[in-house]
Amino acid sequence: MNEAHFTWLSAAQLDVLARLSDALDAANIPWMAVGGLAGNLWGSTWPLHDVDLDVPTAQLPRIASHWSAHVFWKGRYVDDEFDIELVRMRFDDVEVDVSGADDAFVFTPAGLRTPLPNTLRGRVLRPLGQRWVPCQRLSDLIAYRSEEHTSEL
After folding, report:
1. β-sheet bridge partners, residue 87
2. Average pLDDT over residues 60-67
3. What is the mean pLDDT of the chain?
4. Residue 44: CB partners within 8 Å, gap ≥ 6?
5. How many angstroms separate the CA atoms of 68 and 124, rounded?
6. Do 51 and 20 form a contact (C-beta atoms < 8 A)?
7. 3-state helix, strand, coil in the chain (%, to 5)
8. How far is CA 79 from CA 86, 113, 141, in A?
9. Is 38 exposed, middle or buried (0-12, 13-18, 19+ CB in 10 A)?
10. Eight-state DSSP code of residue 79
11. CA separation (Å) from 139 to 30, 87, 100, 119?
12. What angle do CA 121, 23, 140 make, to 5 degrees?
């Protein structure tokens, strides 16, 4: 994946994404880019702080076991914004968050817990250099990021 240069993605992040995507594909684990990575794949140029991926929640223990040397936290993550099953990993200076797509919730500004508008079935392929990356649908990304939408939930 290091055949192209992106201002929003470091070479190290690109290499980690390539390693993870190749391993997930080889293991037949469906996955998609979400969060800032998805936003960048849809055209944002904000610098990427970490690599965010969604997989089926049932696959998280398998991923944590396979990449155990890199896992620094796993479990149910709940804060003011999210309620998700999460595996956090670090590959040198690159942080990766892998969350369960089918068991993910967000809290609205009013404090209501609602399902995140992510679905692996609706993922779309987005170009990244010479590779196509499964990505969160733009409509789901906008729905999550939109204050108008979250205040309606």
Report:
1. 74, 98
2. 98
3. 90
4. 8, 36
5. 29
6. yes
7. 35, 35, 30
8. 12, 11, 19
9. buried
10. S
11. 20, 25, 19, 11
12. 25
DSSP string, 84-127: EEEEEEEETTEEEEEEEGGG-EEE-TT--EEE-S--GGG-EEEE
Name beta bridge partners: 19: none
For 12-56, the pLDDT digits (tens) are: 999 999 999 999 999 999 999 999 999 999 999 999 999 999 999
pLDDT of residue 4: 53
Tokens of 46: 């904000």
Query: Which token pair is 133?
Result: 């990356």
Give the residue carrying structure tokens 């690159």: 94
Q: Which residue has the tokens 């890199």?
A: 70
149: tokens are 């939408």
DSSP-derived letter for residue 46 is P
pLDDT tier at 145 (50, 70, 90 boundaries)?
low
pTM of the predicted protein model: 0.90
CB-based contacts of 85-89 (< 8 A; 24+ apart in sequence):
85/57, 85/60, 86/60, 87/60, 87/63
